[in-house]
Design goal:
single chain, mainly alpha, 5 helices, 78% helix, elongated, growth regulation, nucleus, PRE
Length: 92
């Protein structure tokens, strides 16, 4: 019975070709490097996925850098000030 359940759950998780095309198309819209290309330029799904991973890594680095800058700002202001509370809220 557990074998049957695992087969059912894995088959329900499979994505159809149409769903995959739709997802890749949606990802293209979020990627600045690919979005700026002409619509006629063909970009493979693997390239879109690779660019998505690169873009997510870049966003993570930006978040880390901004968090570091906010932490430095927090160190430079009076901890009971309004500015400090705003910075702490941004870090949460």
């Amino acid at each position: 019975m557990s074998n049957r359940r695992s087969r059912q759950s894995s088959s329900s998780l499979r994505i159809s070709d149409d769903q995959m095309i739709d997802l890749v198309s949606k990802l293209r819209q979020f990627l600045p490097e690919i979005r700026e290309r002409r619509r006629s330029d063909k970009v493979s799904a693997s390239k879109v996925l690779q660019e998505t991973c690169n873009y997510i890594r870049k966003l993570h680095r930006e978040v880390d850098n901004l968090s570091d800058r906010l932490a430095q700002l927090l160190d430079s202001v009076d901890e009971d000030s309004h500015e400090a509370s705003v910075i702490r809220s941004l870090l949460m």
